[in-house]
Specification:
Number of domains: 1
Radius of gyration: 22 Å
Helix content: 25-40%
Number of helices: 15
Oligomer: single chain
Structural class: alpha/beta
Shape: globular
CATH topology: Rossmann fold
CATH architecture: 3-Layer(aba) Sandwich
Largest sheet: 11 strands, mixed
Strand content: 5-15%
Order of helices and strands: EEEEEEEHEHHEHEHHHHEHHHEHHHEEH
Number of strands: 14
Length: 501
């Protein structure tokens, strides 16, 4: 008796209609471009996401769906981020190892980065193959970006991109069992702006109960993040474009027009109106997101794994590698008093502006979150990714996005050699990826990695990983307690360099 061959194009029911996926050589199945909301066009362009209309014919889900990204974050980015044209941008991708497991499998929902204005869930770096191999269902989602997702408009709901994330998580809750996943075992994760998205979801009451754990890699949530700042961005938009900042006025604008309007909010340097570095980003609107994210993160009870790379945007060749004479000025602008700035300069001889930006934007906020959560006995694990690649121009730097091929165990994916060099260590990928799988499955990254509350335990991801206690004391002592000034606009990080994400 022969064993039946699994169907190459299996069909799975969802609450809105059946979808056809594609079985891969390893036996896993992927479903690409599955709609979780109607295309945001016409009256829906600036509305809250609306569930898809039901369908009866089988929907082909064997190719990536349209992306909200209409142009890349820069001419060259670390992560290959395809732009797929089309209106149905509110779609997601499901990678599953088994459509009918004996028990529902844990699920990882991935939110891409891109500064809240770019990025793509269709990146080959976000393929779920390795997670599937290790018994985890991966879901990657698209969402509205830039003006459509985050500009405050008085005649439209705020934080439309956040509402998209919630709608995607609701789709997972309602449908993932059909793909072999357990809706009660969902972890939400993201990197850079995607990490900021995860932090925002932790601060959003409407998202509670949709996931049980969270991972934020190099998470960026801009400060300040309040309604007053969002309203200032709206006023600047109208002043600079001559177009009313309303859904009615913008509804019929072309993609090219919206991108041109968006460019007026990004001056590439100090902003004349004091707008923040990321003017289009989630903010505490007082309703969907009731309070600023850092305040809510300290109280969130779900397990949280967070961290950053050692250098982030401090790579050689960046616009923010400022002459030493300018560094004290930058440190003051970033909120350091004379004593703290002097200590930074003494402990970082030869430091450039990118190092200060890395501390201010990534390392210090993550440390502050870990400290606050440890005080409240919230389960929290902290890491710093230290391994540095050998790619031309990046030797010796663990820069922004470097950790992702290790977390996804995709060292042979498109673009990895250009980003990391020819011999990234597979043993390190095994360790990083294994910790993520353990966290998604067991709500802890493994017995060898205690929580931050245990002597400020911090995993250092070197070629030979090691656990250290309080290795970042200098960063914590210099930056925590520094006063962040009102809406700060420093010279932007050069996102055209590898490392943007």
């Amino acid at each position: 008796m022969t064993t039946p061959t699994p169907h190459r194009y299996p069909v799975v029911p969802t609450r809105r209609g059946p979808v056809r996926g594609e079985r891969r050589a390893d036996g896993s199945v992927r479903f690409l471009g599955v709609p979780y909301a109607q295309p945001p066009v016409g009256e829906l362009r600036f509305a809250a996401p609306v569930p898809p209309r039901p369908w009866t014919e089988v929907l082909d889900a064997t190719a990536y769906g349209p992306t909200a990204q209409r142009r890349p974050f820069g001419e060259v980015t670390t992560i290959p981020e395809p732009t797929v044209p089309g209106a149905g941008i509110l779609n997601l991708n499901v990678f599953t190892p088994d459509l009918a497991p004996a028990d529902g499998l844990p699920v990882l929902v991935w939110i891409h980065g891109g500064g809240f204005v770019a990025g793509s869930s269709a990146s080959p770096w976000y393929d779920g193959a390795a997670f599937n191999r290790d018994g985890v269902v991966l879901v990657s989602i698209g969402y509205r970006l830039g003006i459509e997702g985050f500009l405050h408009l008085p005649d439209a709901p705020d934080n439309r991109g956040v509402r998209d994330w919630i709608a995607a998580l609701e789709w997972v809750r309602d449908n993932i069992a059909s793909f072999g996943g357990d809706p009660a075992k969902v972890t939400v994760a993201g990197q850079s702006a995607g990490g900021g998205a995860v932090q925002t979801l932790l601060a959003t009451p409407a998202a509670q109960g949709l996931f049980r754990a969270a991972i934020t890699a190099s998470g960026a949530v801009m400060r300040p993040q309040d309604r007053a700042t969002a309203e200032a961005v709206t006023r600047a938009f109208t002043a600079r474009t001559g177009v009313p900042a309303t859904a009615v006025a913008l509804r019929d604008a072309t993609d090219a027009e919206l991108l041109a309007f968006q460019d007026t909010l990004d001056t590439g340097g100090p902003d004349p109106d004091g707008l923040p570095m990321l003017p289009l980003a989630p903010f505490a609107d007082g309703e969907l997101v009731p309070v600023p994210v850092p305040q809510a993160l300290a109280e969130a009870a779900v397990p949280l794994l967070l961290g950053f790379t050692a250098h982030e945007f401090a790579a050689p060749g960046s616009q923010d590698d400022r002459p030493d004479a300018e560094l004290p000025i930058l440190l003051g602008a970033l909120g350091l008093d004379e004593h703290r700035a002097a200590r930074f300069l003494a402990e970082r001889p030869g430091a450039a502006g990118g190092e200060a930006i890395t501390d201010w934007l990534f390392r210090a906020p993550a440390l502050a979150i870990a400290e606050a959560r440890a005080e409240r006995e919230r389960p929290t694990w902290l890491y710093q990714f230290d391994w540095s690649g050998t790619a031309p121009g990046r030797t010796g730097q663990a820069y922004h996005c470097t950790d992702l091929p290790f977390a996804f165990d995709l060292l042979h994916a498109e673009g990895v050699t250009a980003a990391l060099g020819t011999e990234p260590p597979q043993d390190l990928a095994d360790a990083v990826h294994g910790a993520w799988v353990a966290f998604v499955r067991d709500l802890a990254p493994g017995a060898a990695w205690p929580s931050y509350r245990d002597g400020r335990a911090t995993m250092r991801w070197h070629a030979e990983p090691r656990l250290e206690r309080d290795p970042l004391s200098s960063v914590r002592e210099i930056w925590l307690g520094a006063t962040c000034p009102p809406p700060l606009r420093t010279a932007r990080v050069d996102v055209s360099e590898p490392g943007a994400g």
